[in-house]
Amino acid sequence: MKLPPVEYEAPTTVAEAVDLLAEHADEASVLAGGQSLIPLLALRLARPELLIDINGIDELSGVSATDGQVAIGAMTREYVAEESETLAGTVPLLAAALPLIGHEAIRSRGTIGGSLAHGDPAAELPAVARALDAEFVVRSQSGERVIPAAQWFEGYLMTSRRPDELLLEARFPAARPGTGTSFQEVARRHGDFAIVGLAASLTLSGGTISDARLAFAGMSDVPVRAAAAEDLLVGESPSAELFEEAARRAADDTDPPADLHGSSDYRKKVAAALVRRGLRAAADNANEGQ
Amino acid sequence: MVNITLRVNGATCTGSPEARKTLADFLRDDLNLTGTHLGCEHGVCGACTVIVDGRAVRSCLMLAVQAAGREVTTIEGLADDGGLGPLQQAMWDAHSFQCGFCTPGMVMQATAFLSDHPEAGEQQVREALSGNICRCTGYQSIIDGVLLAAERNRER
Amino acid sequence: MTAIAAERYTGASIKRSEDPRILTGTGRYVDDIKLPGMLHAAFVRSPLAHARVLSVDVSAARALPGVVAVLTGADLEAMTVPGPDTLMALMGWQGPSPEFTLLATDKVRLVGDPVAVVIAESRYLAEDGCELVEVEYDDLPAVVNAAFALDPSSPPLFANLGDNIARRHSRSESGDVSGTLANADRVIDFHIDVHRHQNVPMEGRGCVASYDADQGVMTFYAATQGVHVSRMAVASRLGLEPGKVHVLAGDIGGSFGLKIGASREELAVAAASRLLGRPVKWVEDRGENLTVSGQAREESFDVRAAISNDGDLLGLDVKMVIDTGSYPGMGVMVPDILQGMLPGPYKLRALGFESTAAITNKAPYVAYRGPWASETFVRERVLNLIAKDLGLDPVEIRLRNFAPRTDPPAMMVTGRPLAGVTSKESLERVAQLVDFPAFRRRQAEARAQGRYLGLGMATFIEAAPGPRSAEPDAALGNESMRLRLTEDGIVELFTGQMPHGQSHQTTLAQIAADEFGVPFEQVRVVVGDSDVVPFGLTGGSRSATMTGGVTLHGARELKAKVLDFAAHLMEVSAQDLLITDGNVWVRGDPASAVAVSEVAQRAASGPFGDDVDAKLEVEATYDGGEGGWSGGTHCAIVEVDVETGIVKVERYVAAEDCGALINPAVVEGQIRGGIAQGIGAVLLERSAYAEDGTFQSATFMDYLMPTACDVPRIEIQHLETVPLDAHVNFRGVGEGGMIVAPPTVVNAIEDALSPFGVRIYEQHLPPARILELIAAADPGQ
């Protein structure tokens, strides 16, 4: 399992990286944390001609909160995000998901941008991004685009980032007052990818649900929102019966894959259970906040 | 080939690895530090764990060239003169290991963890080491070694 | 425990002498070896499960800079001698003998089957070279399950066999099988499946082969459970005299039965080294280890149980089908061992047993820690299922059916005496530790809250080495050791044992130190050099008795020799001399003390007269004495999340009897490691194949190993042993944990799910399967 021959560049600025991407486009792979890309190379499943290592681009790291949103530089290490008090205070759903990503050693190197650009539908961060309608800022020689999460994840390990574009940052909206969140996950072992995961957020105002977000990991080739269940919840008061109905609706609307770790039917059952549990936990958190 | 300079176990080292060479292979082959082991080469088993700039990392998931300018500690560098540091001593006392193949990765991961969480209890230690696979011990003796080291550290 | 001269070390958890190097990363595993001019091998492997090989074009690979040689299957046939698998020859296999070439020539028989080997300046370059080898295949239908293999229409994997039967169907009976079935109150039928899973040591297989053309000597650095077995394998395949192969083994990263003899790849590497006149290294990567190194346990059982209405298990009639994979391994020998062990410590009075072994396009069935383990799984499952049918408690049914310990001992219906077995005591000890009534109350309360806890137990015995047998196998029935006192006063033990985690360098030194009378640090255990150690093989959980025993008796013989010489030196009678703490002294006269090292030095500085034996060395052998069983009862408490199928093992208790303990920490480590593998088998591990023979568990993302969050704190209690031998009552524990943990955990899961009416007839219970079982069950049962 040795990596195949590959060319290597290590730009130190965004401009340099963008120029390299313009030149090499889909013959290049961007190397961020390497926790997803290097195994693919070692298994010789990925065969780029060039690795563009962006670990030396300092301007790509950082967490900054402005105007009701938090911008996270693409090269921000997962452990740094995990330790960020800014994030914990403003995007609690993201803070809840981060410790579930692999193991500490993975989070030492893995990056927020890397995980989101890789787009594994069983990973935690894509589900959070989808739940919160995060935005992705990419740059190429033609300029910058801002892509909403709903359009970012296109297919299995496929995002709408063009081969000549570099992901600069992901922007997450700050949680509004009265919001409770929960990240639920069923994995085979501690630290594994989710067989089914759920990023859940409820905003309560005056005892009724004013906003509901439910996004699944592991239920499709991309993270998916349980839109029908969300619609059911908005305007209602939290109750066990309501959550049960939402769970049923959410699971019914899915068409999950089958693999070594679970059948389609299994995933649907687990999805329903996670929605029940996630909604209950989010509602409890929301009440505590008020 | 990319020329790199890095610090390994407190000493400055240079090398010219191919870009594709992992840090794990560079340590083992170019620097003859064979204490770091290869258990899977796809980042799951943790046997290759070393410490880079104070953080535990899987050296099979880093390219050697990415370690340029960094401070790397391997199992060989944990204690002076090939002796035993306090964690190693505690693990010896606790009969932590059997075949020894997972040992370097376990010790390095536990070292990084304990330095950040000196008060950790058993469940935290188990979670912290859950990314390091051991086939021989069933983990209990390893956990006991880490807890013993932590306890002794507090007593000092 | 009788006999140890001074129990200063034996019985204590002496710190391991292996650990200073293990803990500092200065151990020497085979991949750490670097020799001048060393090359690296990588194998071109089949992507198909079953295919004819039409052509192999190595020209592009040979032309790659850094590639030194590329050898095809045909090339290797020309430079090696065909022969049977070494382990099978060692164990005297007489059945069908598949013919095949070292690397695939005319056909490939599993995904990953090696077709060519690339030798290059680095492993990186060798793998690059492999990608340039072009192989043309003609796909054949894949034989991916035993049912198809046993169907005459399945394409034979081995032309000379004409079918896919590795072992002809055979049946034998012990006791009056038909009579017992006919006269029983009830006969119940079960079908039980055990799934394919595998050893997965953290270090894979590997070797460095280095041929010295001038001397005609092959030095073979190995990761092996026995240097002599590897030596024989290399010598016979390469057509070398056995004396011209020197096998060296250092530290080994686990094996669990995998690394015995030499694999096809290792033999190819040895041949390559001889051809090229340079050392060649090959260490398998994790993909190779999971895909081709070997797998085990895929067996199915049709069981008829003859029982009385009161819960006596009177007889069993069992049909076993074992999926032995493609190339020969030990799978064909498993049914015999399994049959012999099926009755366990119970009063079973009749056993009918028949077996068939199927050849399939999967990795070979290799020895995996307790290869016969399914006998315990089947029996302990059947007992619980019968208990359920009759409304009996699992404890009750076992107590009822245990053979009482009598003198002379009760006989297993399959012929072995149940001497010194403490099954009943182990079950009673577990009951004390766990407090079953309290658990049942907690279980009921939890159920009322929608939480499902379960308790399961299982009892086993293990022939580690087993009681004195009438027919010891010639190759395994005796253990040899050479012991000598070196010039500087070190007691040196040369053993054919090859520790790969068993801590022999510590445990054997404990015994020798106590028996001989020197400090622990004054004993050195020498392993891993075929030029200096006697024949031996680490396996079968025999070393505690066999090697512990030969150490004990050998140390006595050496001590007697040393005392005879010292008596001559000190001009006293040997009977008046003692050795304690590294000193020889006259009983009652401490001032007379002479250091053992001084005695040794004097012996080395002869000459002496013909009447003085100054060669302080003995060659000892030991036949196991009275031997004995190991065994015990394990108990697990689990919680099953019935919405997600996730199982948590909340508590695990083991009451075990391995006779006298040499080093309790070592014993407990072995037990816990085996239990972890058993938990892994039930909840996580499966060697999965698709219908076309594609292997689906080729990385650690898919073959899931238990982690520190999956294995609970395991409580172990050691029972008082029933000594059988006047001197040696150490018994083995290497395999027991892995044998009894799977039924323990499965019994607990079934107990947790009993409100749903779930009954379990299989061993692998991942979350999805748990939910399927709940959905399919009938709560009325």
* Major beta-sheet overview of chain C: 7 strands, mixed
The CATH homologous superfamily of the largest domain in chain C: Aldehyde oxidase/xanthine dehydrogenase, molybdopterin binding domain
Structural class of chain C: alpha+beta
User: How would you sum up the global shape of chain C?
Assistant: globular
**What distance separates the N and C termini of chain B?**
47 Å
**Estimated helix fraction of chain B:** 25-40%
Give average pLDDT of chain C, whole number: 95
CATH topology-level fold name of the largest domain in chain B: DNA polymerase, domain 1
Question: How many helical elements of chain B?
Answer: 5
Task: Give the H and E element order of chain B.
Answer: EEHEEEHHHH
Short key terms for the protein model shown above:
heterotrimer, B: about 160 residues, alpha+beta, Ubiquitin-like (UB roll), DNA polymerase, domain 1, about 35% helix, globular, C: alpha+beta, Aldehyde Oxidoreductase, domain 4, 3 domains, about 30% helix
Write the layout of secondary structure elements.
The complex is a heterotrimer of chains A (290), B (156) and C (781).
Chain A: E1 7-9, H1 14-24, E2 28-31, H2 37-42, E3 50-53, E4 63-66, E5 69-73, H3 78-83, H4 85-90, H5 92-97, H6 104-109, H7 112-118, H8 124-131, E6 135-140, E7 143-148, H9 149-152, E8 153-155, E9 158-159, E10 166-173, E11 179-186, E12 196-205, E13 208-217, E14 224-225, H10 227-233, H11 240-252, H12 264-289
Parallel strand pairs in A: 1-3, 2-3
Antiparallel strand pairs in A: 4-5, 5-10, 6-7, 6-10, 8-9, 11-12, 12-13, 13-14
Chain B: E1 4-8, E2 11-15, H1 23-30, E3 49-52, E4 55-58, E5 71-73, H2 86-93, H3 103-116, H4 122-128, H5 140-155
Parallel strand pairs in B: 1-5
Antiparallel strand pairs in B: 1-2, 3-4, 3-5
Helix pairs in contact in B: 2-5
Chain C: H1 19-23, E1 39-45, E2 51-57, H2 59-63, E3 67-72, H3 73-78, H4 86-90, E4 107-108, E5 114-120, H5 123-132, E6 134-139, H6 146-150, E7 165-174, H7 177-183, E8 186-194, E9 206-212, E10 217-222, H8 227-238, E11 245-248, H9 264-276, E12 280-283, H10 286-291, E13 299-307, E14 313-323, H11 334-341, E15 350-358, H12 374-390, H13 394-401, H14 423-434, H15 436-448, E16 452-467, E17 479-485, E18 491-495, H16 504-516, E19 523-526, H17 543-570, E20 577-580, E21 583-586, E22 589-595, H18 596-604, E23 617-622, E24 627-640, E25 647-657, H19 664-683, E26 714-718, H20 736-752, H21 767-776
Parallel strand pairs in C: 1-12, 10-11, 14-15, 18-19, 25-26
Antiparallel strand pairs in C: 1-5, 2-4, 2-6, 3-5, 7-15, 8-13, 9-10, 9-12, 13-14, 16-24, 17-18, 17-23, 20-21, 21-22, 24-25
Helix pairs in contact in C: 12-13, 12-20, 16-17, 17-18, 19-20
